[in-house]
Amino acid sequence: MSSTDEYHFKTWMSQHSKDYDLTEYSYRLRIFTENKRTIDHHNAGDHSFKMGLSQFTDMTFGEFKKSYLLTEPQNCSATKGNHVVSSGPYPDSVDWRELGNFVTPVKNQGHCGSCWTFSTTGCLESVTAIARGKLLLLSEQQLVDCAQAFNNHGCNGGLPSQAFEYIRYNGGIMTEFDHHNLDQLTSLQPIDITLCLLQYDEKAMVDAVARLNPVSLGFEVTSDFMHYKEGVYTSSMCSNTTDTVNHAVLAVGYGVEEEGGAPYWIVKNSWGPSWGIDGYFLIERGRNMCGLAACSSYPLV
Description:
This protein is an alpha+beta fold. The chain is built from 9 helices and 11 strands. It has helices at residues 3-15, 22-44, 61-68, 115-132, 140-146, 160-170, 176-180, 202-211, 223-226; strands at residues 49-51, 94-95, 172-173, 189-190, 194-197, 215-219, 228-233, 247-256, 263-268, 280-284, 297-300. The strands form 3 sheets. Strands 1, 2, 6, 7, 8, 9 and 10 form a 7-stranded mixed β-sheet that branches. A two-stranded antiparallel sheet has the order 3-4. It has a two-stranded antiparallel ribbon with strand order 5-11. The chain is globular and about 60 Å long. Residues 9-64 form the Cathepsin propeptide inhibitor domain. Keywords: Disulfide bond, Hydrolase, Protease, Thiol protease, Zymogen.
């Protein structure tokens, strides 16, 4: 490794409060340098999105998958869409963050494949805020701890549609504060929901986001997405089938690029606000990119 490589690594370590023993330092330096070269090579080419350094740049994709993605890819083929599509027309762009206090801040799932819980709570937080005028922070931990009977597996994975079924059966969900303070008097946020599925129908997703609320979705994350920084993400590495979904997120809007006119989704992630575009990313809309239409769902309250 060159002194320049080590300088970049030490600068990155300081920015992300990283510390290693001597053996791991050498290992992480090598991985960081390889990832940075991948990032620099990508950014030198002609692509619709840029890559950048992040809190994950010292990890191999294999390590990243084990810590941040669903360890067992989910299969959505058993679900059937039941969303009723309106006749439109729809606006060219929608962003629920700009329409009022309807979207909670970006959260961080940590070293746990619990993205499905953050997609679920994020969607339900927005749906209830739109319906009731009050934005609550709902408990992901309750879903990790309690939703196994609905084919969810805590840090090993699950689906928002299955988590919505648990919440419907349970009659509601606790807030973050209530679930973290179980020794105190706690209360369930009573929420009577109806599950709506939009499987394999991006037009229905546009209809739902334009008329109703943000929508939970799942897709396949591949190694190029790990380094996403900005722009409209597209990939030839991922598939668009129902059986490779390994990450769940929340579509809070959609739009069209000013230059080039590429349609995209505005998506809230759960890897903290320092990743991507302040915790969000844009992904191509209209071609079921990486299978994003395979597992889309939302609740009605």
